[in-house]
Amino acid sequence: MLTETTKPISHAKNASTVSLKINGEDKSLVLKPWVTLLDCLRENLDLTGTKKGCDHGQCGACTVICDGKRILSCLTLAVMKDGSEITTIEGIAPSGDLHPLQKAFIEHDAFQCGYCTPGQICSAIGMLAEGKANTEAEVKELMSGNLCRCGANTNIINAIMEVKNGGNYE
Amino acid sequence: MNDFDFYKSESIADAVEKISNHTDSRFIAGGTNLIDLLKYNLLRVSSLVDVNSIKNQSVTEKDGLVLLNAFATNAETAYHPIIEQRYPLLSKAILAGASAQIRNMATNGGNLLQRTRCYYFYDANTPCNKREPGSGCSAINGYNRNLAILGTSEHCIAIFPSDMCVALSALNATVCVTGSEGERRIPFSAFHRLPDDTPELDNNLLPNELITSIELPAKGFEKNYSYLKLRDRNSYAFALVSVATAMELENDTIKEIRIALGGVASKPWRVQEAEDFLQEKAPTRENFSLAAEIILQDAKGFEFNTFKIELAKRAIIRNCLMALNPSSQLPGAQPSA
Ligand SMILES: Cc1cc2nc3c(=O)[nH]c(=O)nc-3n(C[C@H](O)[C@H](O)[C@H](O)COP(=O)(O)OP(=O)(O)OC[C@H]3O[C@@H](n4cnc5c(N)ncnc54)[C@H](O)[C@@H]3O)c2cc1C
Ligand code: SF4
Ligand code: FES
Ligand code: FES
Question: From which residue to which does the signal peptide run (chain B) (predicted)?
């Protein structure tokens, strides 16, 4: 299904049509080139689960999954991703259930304010799909792109290790 | 960020033509440095030429040489079986840089062209010769903790922050570029520049030239190598000092060694005299220590970064010893506890 966004759009001459499949739905937007993927998600598509922490690539709060890879939506222009498939925190558990990582984050008390959480979870999904981390030290290193200002890091890593090990992590 | 036009390019020739047809235009690859600079208004462009659709195979072998596609991501390159097996030093150095998300976006070409992280370069309210030639250098008498100790000039003491390039320097890579005048090959040691009196020029790429690939010689030093990165936090931070060591041993003596430093100068730093000194010597702490003295003999510290001289020496010794047993390296090139 192709949904034209009803949000205000720019009609300036250098705006172009950008097609994205977001959380399984085809979207078509008319955007100026300077609109970042992060602003497009939050401002044009009302998908505010993806957070803007620093807007400069330094915190990981804006992490989304693009064509299967975790990336920072704040340092990507939406036009660069024309034709891509994007999964945001809103789309990780399509059936309405919680994703195993969401459950583990709750069980492990892996957040306080919750601002970094969507980015942490999208990043962890990307990290597990990459399959490059075997030990806890490797998981920590490959999750270092997501900062938690509340300092819930220990519980975040515990939650991810539980899911990575099929629920048997102590 | 100012308003600009956006063009996609489908081939190398198309990209070079598009950039040549527009003034104040830049290539955009991963965007991880360019978009950041645009957001700070440190760079203004009239248009961007997207080179991401040019991508072919990320890593290819040709007559024993290996070519890294300039438009492939840092992550694809670091995890490519040829790189992991034949050039593990390069893999480790790439994986010590930035974060997993950024490495999924950042390209090999873009990595060579990232700009310095000098605080004053990023602060448009302060004088900076690199940003605005002739305005002065705020760092020389300012807070210069993360700046250079080698190859500086009275005009600029910035460092080049790449990790990947430290390994490329040790591996004697060649940068292959295409411009409207045709193709050129630039040896890695001649790619980045010292500041001298033109600190606004980071490298010798000409305007509108496109990096198309990076060529690695056959020799990958896969048996004895190590990358060590020292920084204020153990991950997701730029290096204060980093070291790449590539070593070939024969009968317990050093047949060949390459030692490249990152975080200390405006380009990856190698000292031929130190590498020659170690040739045919035993790979001992004493010999590495003497080599470290040679490498740092011309180092000059500033008010807040003099500590880097001793740090670099110790990092060289530690890393050369680690190269004798590469499995001692920790994830992200962190130092051992
Ligand atoms: C928070 C953060 C932390 C980081 N930490 C590290 C780190 O620890 N170590 C490290 O090494 N790096 C680090 N980086 C830098 C990162 O590696 C670079 O930003 C990245 O490699 C740049 O590649 P890109 O493809 O995104 O380049 P872009 O941002 O797309 O482009 C950078 C420049 O190169 C030009 N360009 C791009 N490709 C080509 C080409 N093929 N030919 C000619 N010109 C081209 C562009 O016009 C632009 O001027 C960090 C970045 C961030 C944001
Ligand atoms: S060190 Fe170089 S980049 Fe930093 S303020 Fe001085 S001139 Fe600018
Ligand atoms: S908002 Fe993108 S990394 Fe912080
Ligand atoms: S839970 Fe508050 S920033 Fe991580």
Answer: none
